[in-house]
Amino acid sequence: MNDLIALISRHRSIRRFAEGPVSQEHVRLAVAAGQSASTSSAIQSYCVIRVTDPGRRRKLAELTGPQQKVAESGAFFIICGDTRRHRLISERAGRPYDARLEAFLLAVIDSTLFVQNMVLAFESLGYGICYIGGLRNNLAEVDRLLEIPTGIYPFYGLCVGVPAEEPTPRPRLPVNGVLFEDRYPDDATILGLVDEYDSTDRAYGRQRDGAPRLWSTLMTEKFAEPRRVDLGRFYRGKGANFT
Ligand SMILES: Cc1cc2nc3c(=O)[nH]c(=O)nc-3n(C[C@H](O)[C@H](O)[C@H](O)COP(=O)(O)O)c2cc1C
Fold first, then answer.
1. What span, in angstroms and rounded, lies between the C-alpha atoms of 72 and 70?
2. Is 134 a pocket residue for ligand 1 (Cβ < 6 Å)?
3. At 160, is the pLDDT very low, low, confident or very high (cuts 50, 70, 90)?
């Protein structure tokens, strides 16, 4: 254990924030830390849009759920894959831009490495954070609100601010449920580890909000039906080519 691992292990999503802004200096520090993450062949296929306008924050709070924290956290960011600058460079050089699914995946991977580093920097400065996948509930409206250009793929939001709650960190699968040696285990082993995790997570749920629930049931419900089925069309409309 060292200070960094201890900080990472203390992570818990914060959903209630105290009033008070996130200073511009801290934002610059955290974004620069995010940029230090590895990036596939240095393509840096990401950007982050900080939304400051209160009216837009309120509208985004509605579109994402509603999730009040989107309007109320000290800062709100939209994490995007960015292929636009590559397109502009190619256009200026008179070269075709013909990137396919690989480029989309690289944008997802690079953005996610970037933002998790940025998150750790914010957490190390004492802020709390919550990712907002609810941003993908209605990307067409998000697009209308923020006028997102071709080549930019909004993936999720991020609330950052001073925590107004102190939840206990949520347990994860046991390490041997995700760390395998040489080959993937048989299905009975996987299901046994899931059962083990179900009891750990249920104990946590009871202690946190008294709601008995099984992680495996939640997963079953989550993946029983297609969700956000317009995503392919939206990202294609922004220039993604999934072939
Ligand atoms: C990409 C992503 C999107 C998420 N979207 C939301 C969201 O819209 N609203 C929310 O309250 N939490 C959201 N979360 C937070 C997760 O629910 C949370 O990370 C998970 O339950 C584990 O809890 P912990 O972060 O407290 O350890 C999101 C997390 C990720 C990584």
1. 6
2. yes
3. very high
One-letter amino acid for residue 32 of the chain: A
**∠ Cα 48 54 60 (to 5°):** 60
Classify domain 3-169+227-237 by CATH architecture.
Answer: 3-Layer(aba) Sandwich (3.40)
Task: Give the model confidence (pLDDT) of 77-123 as tens digits.
Answer: 999 999 999 999 999 999 999 999 999 999 999 999 999 999 999 99
Domain boundary assignment for the chain: 3-169+227-237, 170-212
User: How far is the centre of ligand 1, averaged over its atoms, from the C-alpha of 76 (Å)?
Assistant: 15
pLDDT of res. 136 = 98
β-partners of residue 76 are 159
From 7, 8, 9, 13, mutation site for ligand 1 pocket: most ligand atoms within 8 A of C-beta: 13
Q: What is the pLDDT of residue 208?
A: 81
Q: Is 16 in the pocket of ligand 1 (CB under 6 A)?
A: no
